[in-house]
Amino acid sequence: MRFRRRRALVCRQAVELMSDYVDGTLGERDRARLEAHLAGCPHCTEYLAQIRDVITAAGRVEPDDLPPRALDELVTLYRRWRQD
Amino acid sequence: MGDDDVVLVERLRDGDEAAFRLLIERYQGQLLRLAASLVASSAVAEEVVQETWLGVVRGIGGFEGRASVKTWLFRILVNQARSAGAREHRSIPLDLGHEPAVPPARFTRTGTWASPPVTWTDEADERLSAKVLAGRIRHLLHRLPEAQRQVFLLRDVQGLPSRDVGDLLGISDGNQRVLLHRARSAMRGMLEREMGRV
Question: Under CATH, which architecture does the B3-83 domain have?
Fold first, then answer.
């Protein structure tokens, strides 16, 4: 999402840029405007920290446990397939 | 884990049943979760995952190591989900969503915070750990709209690069960025509400 006018960002606009900012996909001008806003806005700085928290925590989500029965079924299918 | 995966695939190619078991244990949960976001019911999702493993065995000779094993598995799964007829992915208009990152009521008329985000802390006043947040995210995943959930799962939970995700889901870079932005924003908002801060 881009804001073409050069006016300073307000918080409502800043939060729409955070995800691209974290990924490094924000255009140069928007990045500079966002960083200027963040430098003077503790609330948006906290918001950005929370978006980073979400991304970090998402990478730590554990896979669901696999029921042993499902694993046995698959190995049986594998054996059958190899025999065919 | 990447190199380890390649070794497992090589062992599987040689007919090693234990390697198959290890690969399943490692990826079954992730595949099920992705399948559940692609098809209509959990029963169909389980079928799609089972077909994916058989597809792995049949296509084992075709793995060339250009993509990671994880991307290769996910690609087989997405293809299985599509051919299962559970969803004609490309024929359904992509729902990008339209909700703002934060509800408008949280801002003043001039666009500054009226109800700002509150620092995430626990009883000990320390920032909540990634482990604690991860547990909550896992339970909230199903509440994300479908297209957002798929992109969030692949990018942030599975850690796949954007080009692989675009390829797997058949969506443009721009749409992927919008969906990821909305998913992360929605997840942040749900966590905030769940913690009773708002």
Answer: Orthogonal Bundle (1.10)
